[in-house]
Amino acid sequence: MKLNMSANGGSAAGGKKIITRFAPSPTGYLHVGGLRTALYNFLFAKNQGGKFLLRIEDTDQAREVKGSDKQIIDILNKLGIKFDNSPIYQSKRLKTYQKYADQLIKNNGAYFCFCTPERLEEMRETQKQNKQAPKYDKTCCKLSDQEIKDNLDKKMPFVIRLNVPKDKTIKWDDLIREEVEFNSNDIDDQVLIKSDGFPTYHLANVIDDHEMEISHVLRGEEWLSSTPKHLLLYEAFDWEPPQFAHQSLLLNPDKSKLSKRQGDVSVQDYLDKGYLPESLINFLTTIGWTEESGSEQEVYNLKQLIEKFDIKRLGKSGAIFNLEKLDWLNGWYIRQMKLDDLIKLCQPYLKEIKDKELIAKIVKIEQERLKKIADISENIDFLYKDIKYKAELLIWKKSNREETLENLVKTEDFLMTLTDNDFTQTETLEKKIITWIKKNDYGVGDILWPMRVALSGEQNSPSPFEIAWVLGKEKTIERINQAQKLLK
After folding, report:
1. Which is the catalytic residue, given 99, 260, 312, 385?
2. Domain identity same for 71 and 194
3. How many angstroms separate the CA atoms of 56 and 344, rounded?
4. Is the dihedral of CA 33, 34, 39, 42 positive or negative?
5. Which DSSP helix (H) or strand (E) runs through 293?
6. 251, 279, 310 — which closes off a domain?
7. Rounded to whole angstroms, how far apart are CA atoms 376 and 274?
8. pLDDT of 402-417, one tens digit each?
9. 123, part of any domain
C-alpha cells in the first residue's frame, strides 16, 4: 500500500479545502506540547485560507478529568487560537463508531475477539520468554461464523480488533519526514471497540477525521507508529486519507523528553506565572523550525506567524525547550506593554499592597526588569515595609565606615534642598543628583552605592533614583538618616 500525500498548495489531494483539527483528550491539563500541536494546525489552516476545528477525544472515561475540556477551550480562546466549529465530543458519537465497526467486520477489516484477560496475559508472558514483540496472535480471527454467533448469544465479553494483513508494506509521504515505511507484520491487531462499547483512539480518530473532512493531520512524532494502523483503516473503509505531518517532540535541555519531573509542562502553569499569551505562541511556534535564510527575526505576532508558517520549515530533530529564550521573549513583550495594561496584569500578584499609586510606581520601575508577571512580587518588600541590613553593606569598594558616613550626610543635606516636586519624576531626581555629584567632584559609586543600599537594604535593587521616586522625599531622607545611625 503506497499513498501519495505530498503538499498541494492551498488544497489537499483531490482539490478539497484545507481543514485541520486539534483533538485533545480531557484527561488533565493542556501540555505545552499539545498547545504547540494546536498552534501548528491553526497556523497552517489559516495560512492556507482553510478551517481549524476542535474535537474532544473523551472516550477514555476512566482517565477523564471533569472540567479539563472547558479549561482547554478557555486556554485556546485566551491565546487567540480560535476554532471554526462547535467542539465535537466523541462520547456523543458511540452509535456512529459501532456502525462503522460493524461495517469493518462485514468486509473482514476487523473481527470479534473473546479472549479473556487471563489468556492474553499468558500469551504475552510466553512471547516475552521467547523474546518476541508483544502482539495478539489472531486466535479469534480463526473463529467460524457459528462460533462467533454462539459466543455472542452467550453474551461473552468481547472486543473488536483490527485485522492486520500479513506481509504488507505500508508507505506514505510525510510532509515533515518524507517517505515513511512499515511492515504489517510488525503491527498489532489493535483493539478498535473496547468491551465497554467505547471505541479506542484509533477507530474514532479515523472515522471522525473522515466525517470532519480533515485534509491535513499535524501531530507529534509519537504517533508515527499509529499511522500505519490508521492507513489500514482508511483502506478498509475505502476512504481517502488525509496528509500527515509528524512534528518533532519538545525536549529538555539534556535532550530528554519534556516531562513534569524536570519542570512545568502545563500551559496553565506558565500563564499563572505570568507568561504572556503572545510570548508562549511566539516561543512554541518558532522552536524547532528553520528560520528563513538571512533572517534574524525572533519576535513574531500571531498575524506574522500565520503569514510565514510553512510546514517545510519544521525540523525532524527534537526541539529544545529553552526556558531562557522564553524568559527573554516574555520580557520583551512586557516591555512593549502600556503601563496601565501591565498594572492590571500585575495587581493579582500585589494583593498585599492596598495603595494603588504605590502599585503603579512599583510596576513602572520594574517593567524593564520583569521576565514574567509573577516576578513583580519578588524583592520589592523594601518599597513598602521596614528594612533591615548589616552596616557593612553600605560601604563601597575601597571606602570605609567614616567616609561612607560622611557621604551619606552630604547626600542627606543635598536632598533636603530639593522640593517635593523634584521627587515626582525619576528623570528629574537623577539629573539633579548626578549634576551635584559632578559639580563637587565626588565619586559616583561613593555616593550612589550607600544611597541605594540605605533605601533598599539590598545588594541588588533598582536605581536609587527610582527607589527615591517611589518612597518620596520624606521617606527617602528618613532611610538615609537610619543608615547613618548604623554606621556610628
Report:
1. 260
2. yes
3. 33
4. positive
5. none
6. 251
7. 10
8. 999 999 999 999 999 9
9. yes
